[in-house]
Amino acid sequence: MLILTVDACSPSARLDLVATATSQVKDSERVAQALDSPRLNELLARLPAPDAVAHRFAAGGPQPAIVDDHVRAELDAAAGPGRVPMPESLALLDFLRERLPDVPHVACPDSAYTHRWHGLSLDWSLRRAAHLLGRPAGELDLVLAHVDEDWSVCAARKGVCLDSDGSPADPVDTEDEFRSALRHHITKAAEKTGRLDGLVFTGELGWGSPGLAGAVCAGLPFLGLRGDLVTDREVDAMVSPEGSAVPVLAVREREELQLAEIARRAVEGEPEIANPDRVRLD
């Protein structure tokens, strides 16, 4: 299937055309949120017709769902007064439903996986980590850290993401404070799991700044972590030294692949959420 994935949860919207059979991104564009953006309309004009459109939402329900009038009303309610603001995501959904009326549109809420931001990313990293460790996700107790300008740390017990902690309302001022805050939340998450089968870093900084991950781990020896991580990384991998008490893994954020797989399963009536064991990444 060809799935157009739409992520409007940032100042610019990202759209990717994904071929689910090969997990290849066929086309990609970042566009201004304005619906009259020339780049948005140029992208839609050059793309082949997708089989479905997957929309990321910060909130919107307990499970992904094909958008009909009822689901659209639920999304409005989730974005109501005092709740998660997501007018850009809703406006782009309405615009694309009008431009592409003959294909299903699938709402994929972060809140289906955690109760904070980055739910899709955290769930993807959980399942990728299980694949890399060679064990079913349901057997693992992990701590997942999506690290970016804003960040979330989540305890995953037996394959289920529990409530996550994240960036404070008042941003930290220095790199040392940033590392300290991450260590604090990783420690809290590890306490929730009861044991620690692994620590997973993802997100732009979690993946792309190995020095940061190493510095965070160096301050957590009581969790069995070491700071001398592998810094040369091209693919998802275990980055802790051989013989480490607790493995540390680095997983590239691939929300577009998970969105595409979620939409495929929703359209084809499969009950499971996106499973990176199936997705080809080579």
Provide an overview of this structure.
The chain has 282 residues and is α/β, with parallel strands linked by helices. It has two domains: 2-112 and 255-268, Nucleotidyltransferase, domain 5, CATH 3.30.420.40; 119-250, 2-Layer Sandwich (Nucleotidyltransferase, domain 5), CATH 3.30.420. Helix content is 34%, strand content 24%. It is built from eight helices and twelve strands. It has helices at 38-46, 69-78, 87-99, 119-133, 175-193, 203-208, 210-218, 255-268; strands at 2-7, 12-19, 24-32, 52-57, 65-66, 105-109, 141-147, 151-157, 160-166, 198-202, 237-238, 248-250. The strands form two sheets. Strands 3-2-1-4-6-5 form a six-stranded mixed β-sheet, with helices on both faces. A hairpin with a 4-residue loop joins β1 (2-7) and β2. It is elongated.
